[in-house]
Each structure stands twice: as C-alpha cells, then as structure tokens.
Amino acid sequence: MPLCLVLALAAWLAGEAVSTAQPESTRSGASTEAHRVAEQPALVLPAPPPTGSPLTSEPPSATAGLSSTAAMVSKEWAASAAAATGIPLRALLGYAGAELRLAREQPGCGLGWATLAALGSIESDHGRNRGSAIDAGGTTVPGVFGPVLDGTTYAAFRDTDTGTLDGNPRWDRAVGPLQFIPATWAIWGADGNADGVADPQQIDDAALAAGRYLCDTGDLSTASSWRLAIYSYNHVDSYVDLVAATANSYTERMP
Q1: What are the residue ranges spanned by the domains of the chain?
Q2: Which of 78, 90, 162, 240 has the most CB atoms less than 10 A away?
Q3: 185 in helix, strand or coil?
Q4: Residue of 229 and 26 predicted with greater confidence
C-alpha cells in the first residue's frame, strides 16, 4: 500500500459517482466518498479566495504555532460567518484556524477555509453524520466512523492501528469529521488544538491534517493545482466538482 494512501472513505453517505477524466497525479488518492451526481458533470473552477477571510485574534509571534488553531480566529468573524453559511460554529473555527495556521506554515499554499469546510460537509456533514455532533472542545461525540473496510462493499484495508482509532482490530475504517483512515492518519495526523494528542475525531486536528495533506500538492491558488489537490483526496472528477461548488457556495454567502 503506498504511504500516501489516503484519508477518507465516506461512500456510505450516498451512491457511486462516475469519473469523467483522469488527470495525472503522483498521489494515490484520498477520500472514496461517492456522492451520486451527473455522469458527465461540468467542470467547475475552484473556490476563489474568500471575500471574508478569517480574521486572526492574535498577532503573529514566535510561539504562535503552539497555540490552538481555533484560538487564532476572531470570534466575531466566526460568529458572522457561521450565521451566513450555516456551518456549525465549532466546525468553522477548526476550518478557519487551519487556514490561518497554514498561511504561516506554508504561505505559498493558498488554501482557504471554504475548501476545508466543503470537505467537512461532504465527508461527514461537519461531524453530524448519523447523529454525531462536534462538542465545545471540538471533538465529535459520538465518534464518526465509516464502514468497515473488509472487502465486502469497499476495498479491503487490513488493520493498521490494532483498532486504536477505529475500534476494529481486524479491518480499518475511516474516522472523524474528515474521514481519515488510520494508516493515513499515522502519516498526516496533526495536533491543531495543542493538547499534545493528534486525534482524527477532533476538528482542529483533522482540519489541520487535511490542510497539510492538500498543501503538499503545492500552490493551490490556481485552478489546475487546486483540482489536482482535491483529486488526490478522492480520484473522482465529480467529487472535485462537488467540493468546488460547495466551497463556492460558502464564499458566496459571506457578507
């Protein structure tokens, strides 16, 4: 299994999608989320830089990288954005905080919060799938889990974490609001809330990890590189279009 084998498997949310093109990618794929969409979807440009980029609540400093990503976001901005977009406030703090952290870590990436929010919406309804919710601390309660990957319906992924993350000691399954599989979390796992633990069920951790994964593609300010990054998350063109449309819908609602 390639090391960069990927994050999400949320096909359990809907039916299968049909890919209409195969752009080259040196990466092995991410989500296998399979929303049923048009068989020949029109290409959609990636989300533009948000008109309401998250405002930071703290000035840059030498130790800023050690703080919680959510604490970096202006609470006034977040409350306004949550009301405008319908994204749960605690989830939005995770997405926006990841953008601000990545802007410092990788200023050449250009990843916006709306892209992460679109992924969170598609993968788990912002942590609300199957009755779960993100609590005040940013953790999904109860935890969000995808189907067991035993080869019955989806590709088989034998256990890589002794069931520590996904509760299954025999087969892996995707976990958390961004639907990481344990093998991928072992590579990309992040500690966005600065509690010393990288937890895929915690939105700050998951959003920062997903952002770093996407930024590994390079500069996401161009349509081609943005699409390549999302395609690496899930090798289905209609999925890329859905992420773009969802991200654009969020930015268009911003005041």
Answers
A1: 11-56+68-253
A2: 240
A3: helix
A4: 229
* DSSP output for 55-97: PBSS---TTGGGS-TGGGB-HHHHHHHHHHH---HHHHHHHHH
Indicate if the pLDDT at residue 96 is higher than 50. Answer: yes
Q: Of 179, 144, 177, which Cα lies nearest the Cα of 10?
A: 179
- With a CB cutoff of 8 Å and minimum separation 6, the contacts of 75 are 57
User: To 10 degrees, the CA torsion angle through 180, 182, 188, 193?
Assistant: 70
Beta-carbon-side half-sphere exposure of residue 79 (alpha carbons within 13 Å):
3
pTM of the model: 0.81
Q: What is the pLDDT of residues 202-217, one digit of tens each?
A: 999 999 999 999 999 9
Give dist(CA 200, CA 165) in Å, integer: 8
Burial 192-211 (b: 16+ CB within 10 A, else e): bbeeeebbbbbbbbbbbbbb
